[in-house]
Amino acid sequence: MTSTTSIPISIEFFPPKTPEGVEKLRVVRQQLYALKPEFCSVTFGAGGSTQEGTFSTVRDILAEGMNAVSHFSCVGATRATVREQLATLKAMGVKRLVALRGDLPSGFGVGGEFHYASDLVAFIRAETGDYFHLEVAAYPEVHPQARSPESDLKAFVTKVQAGANSAITQYFYNADAYFRFVEEADALGVQIPVVPGIMPIASSTQLMRFSDACGAEIPRWIRLRLQSFGDDTASIRAFGLDVVTDLCEQLRAGGAPGLHFYSMNQSAAILNICQRLGLAS
Ligand code: FAD
Is 12 a catalytic residue? Predict the structure, then answer.
């Protein structure tokens, strides 16, 4: 049976690369605003590669009267560039950031003046006090470059102790991994909300490619079912809606503090899932 308990949602976009993409995203956002998201966030390319697109998408969201959150990655950055970007974001009226290390471009070392997201969180706190609400990333299935699950959990606790207000997880399709992560973080004194990141399933190849890169596990039964549909997009989408709605149900029933949707700049799946969850008016 479907519960209709309300749960806050937030939605993530990436900055489009073309004028057509910008226009398309404008339409997608309007459709998704009907869900009354608590905030909409915009990703930020490592090394500031998408900074202009990120900031202009954030500006658009703010102009539409919504709470816009900028992701902010520090890989390759210097204190001076971060200080400058923080001043720009403050002047734009941004009050919330997702503070990240970022993904390292292949062939490069860590470089820059920040090694880990915890360094960035500490720097932002030292520079701007409590002005920003800071989100950090969490990995219920362990970050792919972590030395061990224990060291990854410790790294998460360090980010929280450096001053994070809340966290958003990498996506996953195994609710137990999330609940265990939250329990273990709680046992280490983490009190902040850890919001599960939700990736709707729209295309099987895209999902496999993405998941391999970011270390999110696709359970065998989901992988095999997706493979069995071949190019039958309608069946993939229908199956994906069932799987992801069930996952959201389990997370809500287990007390997750919110649902953060990775939109991939598409609205249909999120609207459908939220409707099934009784979250669409
Ligand atoms: P960190 O928390 O710094 O962790 C990185 C690695 O270092 C982990 O393996 C950790 O275990 C290890 N580590 C951390 N501290 C220590 C320490 N003191 N000693 C030893 N090891 C340590 N990427 C983008 O480029 N742009 C985005 O906009 C973006 N948005 C994201 C949003 C969310 C919600 C999530 C979950 C991820 C996002 N990413 C984004 C991906 C993210 O940048 C990558 O996963 C990146 O590889 C790690 O970033 P982090 O902030 O989690 O790093």
Answer: yes
How much is the pTM?
Answer: 0.96
The CA radius of gyration of the chain, in Å to the nearest whole number, is 18
Decide whether any atom of ligand 1 lies within 6 Å of the 159 Cβ: yes
Q: What are the pLDDT digits (tens) for 62-95?
A: 999 999 999 999 998 999 999 999 999 999 999 9
Enter the tokens of residue 256. Answer: 């997750």
Residues 6+ apart with CB under 8 A from 30: 64
Contact predicate 107/76, CB 8 Å: no
Range 9-276 has CATH code 2.60.40.420:
no
Nearest atom in ligand 1 to 169's CA: 36
The packing angle between helices 175-187 and 149-161, to 10°, is 60
Domain extent listing, the chain: 9-276
User: In the chain, pLDDT over 90 holds for what percent of residues?
Assistant: 86
Atom of ligand 1 nearest to the CA of 135: 34
